[in-house]
Design a protein that fits this description.
The protein is elongated and about 105 Å long. It is an alpha/beta fold. A hairpin with a 6-residue loop joins strand 8 and strand 9. It has two domains: 436 residues, no CATH class; 80 residues. The chain contains 17 helices and twelve strands.
Length: 555
């Protein structure tokens, strides 16, 4: 870590999810937009730009992932012809390569001018900005995308200034550079004090195979310009091929968390859409998965792993972290993902085996299948049976007077198998989606506890879950924070514990060599921050004293 960074107070926000915003032609919001608070965010930054509040220190704003939602930018009509020709299916928008991402960042800036103006002004005043990539804006991996974002800030600042050039304006414009707008592939870190990352790597459906080298492996037969695309995890594929389609009808479907709740809602509210996804969009998604799993050239994933490890070593040097410790954190991430994937699979299997009504149906289906198979194989079996047994069983019963009855019974059995399987699947799905989800400690809080132990930091901050959180994760004052989201709540159930809008952020004030962190909420009506109220719940880490958790009362 550069020692200059410790001269700044800190602000942390996450999961803004800026998408296309207001489209230039229609002057209306895109159906896939989730962020409607450009003006509120501008006032938030203006408050912290105030000289009377900043006192002797400037501010370092860290946006820890999913600042932009590139997965939900589907406009492509005015894209360069070369990009449009590379698009596999225009229905889903441009794909996830470097040039496509540059175009998408431009579209987001076009639809969120006030947001970009606020960021540019914040940096121009001498403050710092760091953007950590998340699973919705992992394209910040590309250097050209970072350059595009920086150039957009410069352009928008120049466009908001007076046409008369004055030394102060020129100096402020010069402040917007690669030293004041920083990008991180993984984390922000302060020795023995602070670890910050997005947190998607602890989510089984949103974890990348190699986060520091998140590109697809080399695929045989692909043109060179297509070899730089992102290797999207399953959760991102669902956004591109399911959520984006559903949001044409239900604009805020992607705000339903977690995925099991979304599936329950989809099957209940839009069964026809669910069926269409299974046979259309889902089939296209599976073809994409099959290509990524079966088409890579030999050893191409090994190359991605080597790139990931090389960048990890470079990060260890840049941030003065012992490489074994950083490797251990990275390794625990992989084990966490594998463990969660395994537990999900076994959870489904255990659900099947434990359900009292489903087991008899499965047993009956198995018996019918065995009987049907034996009868179908009877002619083959008869040819190899001893003559005495064949005369007794085959000639007398199967080929004799009982033959028509047996054939009719087999026909009935075969017709029964399909409805029984459908009935069993229907009952099981109803059982699965009607169960109350077991309240467990946050996966991110558990991972934060491991990070604090391995790296010896006092504070661990993550986002990703969209649930603001604060928990004690150690006996020496270690704490886990989650920055929540700035997107709006549309679920009636969530309104019981959350306000419609919560502009959550973390404020960090330097106190000597220490740091005082507070989980805050921007009150736009009062135009000032206030502490976010959290209430005890079932999300705490069980082996530690009960802590403050994300259950909240409506404002």
């Amino acid at each position: 870590m550069h020692p200059e960074l410790k001269k700044y107070n800190l602000l942390f926000v996450s999961d803004l999810h800026l998408s296309e915003g207001v489209r230039s032609q229609s002057k209306k919001y895109s159906l896939k937009e989730d962020f409607f608070f450009d003006r509120q965010f501008a006032r938030f930054l203006s408050y912290y730009r105030s000289p009377c509040f900043a006192r002797e220190r400037k501010w370092h704003l860290v946006i820890l992932g999913d600042c932009l939602d590139l997965l939900q930018v589907t406009a492509y009509q005015d894209a360069p012809l070369g990009l449009r020709s590379r698009c596999q299916n225009p229905q889903y928008g441009l794909d996830c390569g470097e040039q496509e991402a540059i175009y998408k960042v431009g579209k987001i800036a076009e639809g969120h001018k006030e947001f970009f103006e606020a960021l540019a002004g914040f940096v121009a005043d001498g403050n710092l900005l760091t953007i950590i990539k998340g699973n919705h804006d992992v394209e910040f991996h590309y250097p050209a995308v970072r350059e595009k974002f920086l150039q957009l800030l410069k352009d928008v600042f120049g466009g908001t200034q007076s046409t008369q050039t004055v030394p102060e304006t020129a100096q402020k414009a010069a402040n917007i550079n690669s030293d004041s707008v920083l990008f991180s592939d993984w984390f922000y870190y302060e020795d023995k004090l602070l670890w910050v990352e997005h947190g998607n790597q602890y989510d089984e459906t949103n974890a990348f195979k190699y986060y520091l080298s998140p590109l697809l492996p080399t695929i045989a037969g692909w043109p060179p310009e297509r070899q730089d695309e992102i290797d999207l995890p399953l959760g991102s594929l669902f956004v591109r091929y399911l959520f984006n389609t559903i949001e044409e009808v239900e604009p805020f479907a992607d705000n339903i968390k977690p995925q099991i709740e979304f599936l329950r809602w989809l099957l209940k509210k839009h069964p026809a859409t669910a069926l269409r996804f299974a046979v259309s969009d889902g089939a296209f998604m599976l073809r994409k998965l099959r290509r990524a799993w079966t088409a890579p050239e030999p050893d191409s994933y090994r190359c991605r792993e080597e790139e990931h490890n090389a960048k990890l070593s470079q990060l260890a040097v840049e941030w003065a972290i012992e490489e074994p410790g950083l490797q251990a954190v990275s390794g625990s991430r992989a084990r966490s993902v594998l463990k969660e994937t395994s537990s999900l699979k076994w959870k489904i299997i255990r659900g099947i085996l434990r359900w009292r009504l489903l087991r008899p149906l499965l047993l009956a289906t198995a018996v019918l299948i065995v009987i049907s198979g034996v009868v179908a194989m009877a002619p083959v079996l008869a040819a190899v049976l001893p003559q005495a047994i064949r005369s007794l069983v085959w000639d007398r019963w199967v080929a004799g007077s009982a033959g028509p009855i047996i054939k009719a019974a087999v026909s009935v059995i075969r017709w029964l198998i399909f409805p029984i399987v459908v009935l069993a699947a229907g009952f099981w799905l109803h059982w699965l989606f009607s169960q109350e989800q077991e309240k467990k400690p946050s996966a991110l809080a558990s991972s934060a506890q491991e990070i604090a132990r391995r790296l010896g930091v006092r504070y661990v901050i993550m986002g990703h879950t969209h649930d603001a959180d604060l928990q004690s994760i150690g006996s020496n004052g270690e704490e886990y924070f989650n920055t929540g989201t700035w997107t709006k709540v549309f679920s009636e159930e969530e309104r019981l514990i959350r306000a419609d809008v919560e502009f959550v952020f973390i404020q960090g004030l330097r106190r000597g060599d220490g740091l005082q962190l507070k989980l805050m909420e921007w009150d736009d009506d009062a135009q000032e921050p206030r502490l976010l109220k959290l209430f005890e719940g079932e999300g705490d880490i069980g082996r530690l004293p009960r802590a403050r958790t994300p259950r909240r009362k409506a404002a």
